[in-house]
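Late entry, evening session. Most of the bench is empty. Finally got around to the prediction I had been postponing all week. Sequence below, unchanged from the version circulated by S.P.
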Amino acid sequence: MLTPSAAAGVLTVWACAVAWMDLRHRRIPNVLSLGGWVIGVLHLLIVGHSPLGASASSSWLAAGLALLVTLPGYMLRQLGAGDVKFLVALGLLTSWPLTLNSFAIGALLGAAVGLAGRNRLMLLSSLPAAWQTPGSRLARWAASAPQKKRHLPFGACLTAGLLLGLWLTGLPAP
């Protein structure tokens, strides 16, 4: 079995792959999220603790809490199914404090990114008319805001929350 430090490195690589896919395709493939479920459940059943060394009860609680905090967002169509499955996998692989920290940090980051992206056009319209010349760099930037509603790549935000949480708990995140 891997040491908690090595497991944190593998977890980091896996979470970064999830973030990359979410940023690039706005989708988290099942092979990544459900693969995390399988590894987490098998590790909990065979070894008796999470790969990072948390108790089995902490990991099961984390998976339950992940469902509790993400299912309302999924039902309101604010989160995708991949985001829910990814956070449950994080719970199974880590512990409840790290999972909740990942969610809280990810939610704050996601809110900031979402507000920044949606407020581009409002920002442009509030500027003086002389700055709103068509074709200017500022006008092109504001016009590049998404016109249709697309899901925020929340998996990437959760990954950032996980990496910050690993750093805060003292586990190395390579």
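Two things to note before I forget:
The radius of gyration is 19 Å.
The chain is about 70% helix and 0% strand.
Will write this up properly tomorrow.
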